[in-house]
Design a protein that fits this description.
Helix 7 links the parallel strand 3 and strand 4. The strands form two sheets. A seven-stranded mixed β-sheet has the order 5-4-3-6-7-9-8, sandwiched between helices. The chain has a two-stranded antiparallel ribbon with strand order 1-2. It is elongated, with a radius of gyration of 21 Å. The chain has two domains: about 60 residues, Helicase, Ruva Protein, domain 3; about 210 residues, Vaccinia Virus protein VP39 (Rossmann fold), CATH 3.40.50. Helices cover about 40% and strands about 20% of the residues. The relative contact order is 0.11. The chain is an alpha/beta fold and about 290 residues long.
Length: about 290
């Protein structure tokens, strides 16, 4: 039986809500747009038109895959972060709203500095560093990640957001000492892998079966990357510069103590919208 685009969208939204999807409205719209090849504006314009049977079949297959656990961002190959459209693949984590707290705090610090250098370490899709560059026009940003796949996606996102003049990307291992050639930065932002290894299998199917474990697992206790980055990458930070971390639930106090033990002061913890401590940042008092 023929169905209009609007009724198909509503049908999919009901199905997603029935499975407990918190973003059912957004996900339904994105799946219909992608499956039909329409923009959001075109979908609204054509809402009363009937959907061709082959298009409906394609959209419903996408919905079936999503209901089986496959994230919408991987199905459609893109997602939005801090107002920026980003290419996404299974080589990178899907940007979360929680991580916008990290971007927001870094932007608030970097923007008044004027000309400065920022490093986004463990950059993944480049979402945080690109948000900083887009909102702090005088900043030059380097995106670094150990994954070649992530570097490719970051490079695509630099071009997609027309930031090639101020943003670059390179392969960097956050667990090793920074190469001297990259110089010093006024600010380092980092959303490292921080989930304890034993907890990976307890995560939702959409995460544990689809998102890259390289970007999820923070070692036995979840602190492997913090314990490597804080003492080693402080040498790539100017005295008086800031280091910003995203942290997992219950990790803020430990990361704060790690930073304090390695010469950072004025350390602050910032909560996300759910009142969960999500960002820890501090100022490098003296680089030795």
């Amino acid at each position: 039986m023929p169905i209009t685009y609007n009724d198909l969208y509503l049908d999919i939204r009901r199905a997603l809500r029935g499975r407990g999807a918190s973003a059912a409205t957004l996900e339904a719209r994105e799946l219909v747009c992608y499956g039909s090849g329409k923009t959001r504006e075109e979908l609204f314009r054509d809402s009363r038109l009937y959907v061709a049977p082959e298009v409906e079949a394609r959209i419903r297959d996408l919905v079936r895959r999503h209901l089986s656990g496959e994230p919408v961002a991987y199905l459609i190959g893109e997602w939005e972060f801090y107002g920026l459209p980003l290419d996404i693949s299974e080589a990178v984590l899907i940007p979360r709203v929680d991580t916008e707290v990290l971007a927001r705090e870094a932007i608030a610090y970097v923007k008044p500095l004027g000309p400065c250098r920022v490093l986004d370490l463990c950059a993944g899709s480049g979402c945080v560093g690109l948000a900083v560059a887009a909102n702090a026009p005088a900043a030059r940003v380097l995106l670094g990640d150990i994954s070649e796949g992530a570097v490719r996606i970051s490079r695509q996102n630099i071009r997609r957001n027309q930031l090639s003049g101020r943003v670059s990307v390179m392969v960097l291992d956050a667990r090793e000492k920074p190469p001297a050639a990259i110089g010093e930065f006024d600010c380092i932002v980092c959303n490292p892998p921080y989930i304890p290894a034993a907890e990976i299998e307890t995560l939702e199917i959409s995460v544990k079966d689809f998102e890259p474990r390289l970007a999820l697992c923070g070692g036995a206790d979840g602190y492997d990357f913090y314990s490597a980055i804080i003492p080693r990458w402080r040498t790539a930070l100017k005295t008086g510069g800031r280091l910003y971390f995203e942290v997992g639930i219950g990790q803020a106090d430990t990361v704060l103590r790690m930073m304090r033990a390695h010469g950072f002061g004025d350390i602050n913890v910032v909560q996300d919208d759910q009142k969960i401590p999500r960002v820890v940042y501090g100022t490098l008092l003296e680089n030795v």
